Amino acid sequence: MRGITERVELMEPTETGTAGPAASYRTMTAFTPADEERRRGVRRMKLTATGLLLFVAVVYVLSKLAGNAGAGAWADYVSAAAEAGMVGALADWFAVTALFRHPLGLPIPHTAIIPTKKDQLGVSLGEFVGENFLSQDVVRQRLRAVGIGARLGVWLADPEHADRVTAELATALRGALTVLRDSDVQAVVGEAITRRAGAREIAPGLGKMLERVVADGGHKRAVDLVVSRAHDWLVLHGDNVMGAVQGGAPGWTPRFVDRKIGERVYKELLRFCAEMRDMPSHPARGALDRFLTDFASDLQSDTETRARVERLKGEVLGRGEVQDLIASAWTAVRSMIVAAAEDERSELRTRLRSALLSLGARMASEPKMQEKVDDWLEGAAVHVVTTYRAEITSLITDTVAGWDAEHTTRKIEAHIGRDLQFIRINGTVVGSLAGLLIFTLSRAVGG
């Protein structure tokens, strides 16, 4: 948490209100307590390496004085070793120092490599990552070695994990439906339905469907229902029917004549409905069959009929009642889904959990299923890598370019400087041994 807090605190906004380059390089180069401890370790190693250099320098001076005083041949051997040790120590000091700054402050070419070549190093690092880590073959090989399909299957097959995934998916679904505004969804759904219905002529399809219904006799049940209900209604509302007939009669006719006509009309209607109900071969049924057959044919082939259906379709879709129906349907569906997502024992969550367990069991036991999942994941990863490789590598180069050179140098030196000081120590020791060996061989050859 401390590291995260430091990063947040160091992200300073620019004048435009966004975090600028200063924030990016300060996040990299800010010194933490661990970095300060590393710097103290570097300083200790520098003192050790420098002390060793001073030691061999003192040994060199003392051996020279001893040789001039006639101490013997051993003084020459010690002097040669100490001299070579100083040369090795100074050479390695120069090499290590040249990485981070100009030795002795002198602008010697090809020194202060890190601060002066920081941006080039960032570009090279980005190219290296892109070529060696973001290549298609590397991504496929690494993902194939991991075996994500099998591992994911074993993980999903655990009921506890399936419960967890089910709960997370339900939460996500509930959150998505809660965030969505009803007006937006209704507008999208209504527009999609209207556009899809308007783009396709419905008359031929209706004609084919009606033709199949009539051929199969499916309409007869509807006719039976309508006729039966009409007969029952006439039985219950005879007075209303007769009253309506009498009310439509001319005013000059006697009332008993109107009543007789009303009764006659009522009885004929009642008889007609009863006969049509009870007689499957009633002429009216046959006439209705012929009408529906002709209408089905007109829907498919008659231009005028098809045009009238299309006009009627447009009028229906344009009515506010239809849009209100879509809105009410969406509201009901959303409420139902949200309630099911919240209820742990709902059919939705139960089926989702069962599906996840089944999927996990198949992935864990079926090699073909594992291979299919692996291929899908590899394809998705390769697509991301190949499509956004430049953006990924530019993240590295742009981030390095935004770092401050001086602070970056200090940060890197704090991390690797201690190990680099061992190079100076090794240079002193190896130089001394090499100088002693060379001097010894020279004496032997000269002798």
Automatic annotation (TrEMBL):
UniProt entry tagged with the keyword Membrane: yes
GO CC annotations on file: plasma membrane
UniProt-recorded name of the protein: DUF445 domain-containing protein
UniProt cross-references to Pfam families, sorted A to Z: DUF445
Cross-referenced PANTHER family: INNER MEMBRANE PROTEIN, INNER MEMBRANE PROTEIN-RELATED
UniProt keyword terms in alphabetical order: Membrane, Transmembrane, Transmembrane helix
Entries under InterPro entries matching the protein: DUF445 (IPR007383)
Entry's transmembrane regions: 47-66
Signal peptide: none
Species: Streptomyces malaysiense
